[in-house]
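step 3/5: co-fold with zinc ion
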Amino acid sequence: MKFANYNGRAVVTDGVRAVYVADASDGKFGDAPDHIFDQWDEFTAWARTITVRDGFALDPDLLAAPSPRPRQVFAVGLNYAEHAREGGVEPPAEPAVFTKFPTSISGPRAVLELPTDTVDFEAELVVVIGRHGFRVPERQAWDHIAGLTVGQDISERTRQLTGPMPQFSLGKSFPGFSPTGPWLVTADELDNPNDLGIGCSINGQVMQDGRTDDLIFSLAQIVQKLSAILPLLPGDVIFTGTPSGVGVARKPPVFLRDGDVLETWVEGVGTITSTCRTGVQYAPAHS
Ligand code: ZN
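step 4/5: write tokens
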């Protein structure tokens, strides 16, 4: 099942056609995408009974972030061995976790404002939580995952790496620095949700090209390890790490420039496109 945020309204889609959840369920479920996660188990049971073949044709430009107002947004650094190596560090023994603040969330076709000339890209598989979970055992972790979406952990490297302590959370939380979408795909749609191709390109040139079976900490282990410390809430978003090929590790470094089109994909999940601009006035993305 694919769940999407269509111009602020919850829809079920096959990627081409869609139906509004509130209409198709006769109001059993509401319009607000973020509220659907509070009823995710009930919602998915219902959503599997409906057909979208006779729905309306999707306009991709109207898709927004699948979880537009998460209460918590986590990200895992150095979670691919090859990416840890290009950063010059050993693969970590425990996940290196930081937060991306929720105001940085944007959608799958958003304009990405570049606040400086050292903004970098990180293609990531993103987990959205669908069931409250505290101290979740690894074997039950997938029961807490609503589905998977595509994301970019956009990173302003100067802010991130300046000061006595690295400022990961601030450097990765400028407005629009967490594009996600184009929809949420449930795990049962994927042959193997633990082994998916992932990558990104700038203006058509491939910059990252990896597979999620290279993750050091699997999606289930991330859920287990985060929830060992704090409760995970419906709608929470977890960026799970990026494969090798990021701009800052290249010689010379490659950073995003005005007019660049950054395309990011995860096999079986979808593709998102960020158009880079400098000097644009920040306006909150519709969600
Ligand atoms: Zn990242």
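step 5/5: annotate
The pocket of zinc ion is lined by residues 75, 77, 122, 124, 153, 239, 241-242 (CB under 6 Å).
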